[in-house]
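RECORD TYPE: inverse folding
INPUT: structure tokens
STRUCTURE:
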């Protein structure tokens, strides 16, 4: 007999993970290289920022679903013997710590550095400061994606 609640929650968790990480991969592997090759520097930030503003909604809806269904998964797997499985608990803790770091980086990228970069891009006189800000946003986005992939690896280790 299929446990539909279990299947639906896992499906939602997986779909949100695919949407969130797949979206970031698309930006890094497809959008940014095309924008760099096809558009002049002054247009690039506006274009990536416009996509970013739209993806921010998709990303935060996905993250909210991941956290809510994640707690459901946690409740489901925390049966008898859960606290004595030290290996499982350490991977789970590592995953949750990484999720917290990823959430912090997402907030910084989406609501602080990203919007600041977009505002400055309208003013080319902000030379060095602007370039430093741009490097910060790119670095944040890369670290963010790498950590998200690490969360995925830990999730795979947990499910076995
Ligand atoms: C935010 C990023 C997250 C990503 C990318 C992610 C990804 C995944 C993936 C891909 C799975 C495997 C699902 C399956 O094969 O059925 C999974 C399972 C799981 N996730 Fe997450 N997850 C995230 C957040 C969370 C959070 C916040 C929690 C807890 C509050 C959580 C708890 C769990 C648990 C308990 C499982 C099941 C492990 C098992 O079967 O033993 N996840 N996660």
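DESIGNED SEQUENCE:
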């Amino acid at each position: 007999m299929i446990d539909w609640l279990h299947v639906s929650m896992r499906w939602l968790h997986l779909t949100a993970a695919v949407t969130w990480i797949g979206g970031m991969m698309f930006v890094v592997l497809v959008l940014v290289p095309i924008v760099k090759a096809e558009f002049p520097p002054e247009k690039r930030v506006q274009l990536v920022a416009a996509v970013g503003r739209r993806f921010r909604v998709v990303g935060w809806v996905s993250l909210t679903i991941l956290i809510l269904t994640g707690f459901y998964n946690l409740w489901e797997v925390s049966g008898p013997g859960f606290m004595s499985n030290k290996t499982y608990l350490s991977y789970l803790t590592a995953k949750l710590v990484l999720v917290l770091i990823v959430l912090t980086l997402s907030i910084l990228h989406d609501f602080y550095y990203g919007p600041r970069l977009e505002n400055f891009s309208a003013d080319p006189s902000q030379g060095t400061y602007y370039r430093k800000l741009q490097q910060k946003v790119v670095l944040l986005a890369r670290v963010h994606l790498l950590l998200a992939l690490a969360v995925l690896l830990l999730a795979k280790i947990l499910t076995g």
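NOTES: The mean pLDDT is 92.
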